[in-house]
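Thread: Newbie trying to understand structure tokens

Hi all, I'm a second-year student working on a class project, and my supervisor (Dr. K.) asked me to get a predicted structure for one chain before our next meeting. I've only ever worked with sequences, so writing a 3D structure as a token string is new to me. If someone could post the tokens and maybe explain what I'm looking at, I'd be very grateful. Here's the chain:
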Amino acid sequence: MIVCLMLIGLGGSTVPRWLGETHLSTRAGRMAFTGGISALIAAALVNGFAAERLAGQAASGIQFPVLAALNQTLAVFGMLMVAAAMALWAVRMLRLDLIAKVAGGVGLAAAGLAAGWLVHGGGAFGLVGATVAAGVFAAWSALTAAGLLRGPSEPSA
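---
Reply by user tm_fold:
Sure, no problem. This is what the structure looks like when written as tokens:
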């Protein structure tokens, strides 16, 4: 999972070049995306390695709930930051060709879903939240990749 997140981070690093790094929304999106992917990697490290090593038999009653809370906090922060990046990049995508516009719309929808989930769902990151987030991110990624493969495009007037 950690390697997969690192590869997603690598792929996401190409988006700012495609959108034009001189734009504030593009640079802010890059910062949010990097922070989000880093938080998701940290959550995976806590869940996959730290919890197992630190929560021994004697201290498991105290340490495991703390590590679980840390994992959830990092996962929620990571998801929200990636959604924020998608929305920030949508500012530029909506000025490009049709594929980019659709990707930008999905990015805005992702940010809206993330905000609604945080407000109405209390930020509990369970199976449903993770599945919806992964599905929306997959749609955005596929559309963004299609735009990247088409090459640079000029913003509409």
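A couple of things are worth pointing out once you decode it. Residues 60-93 form the longest helix (34 residues). Helices lie at 2-12, 15-19, 24-54, 60-93, 98-120, 127-150. Feel free to ask follow-ups in this thread.
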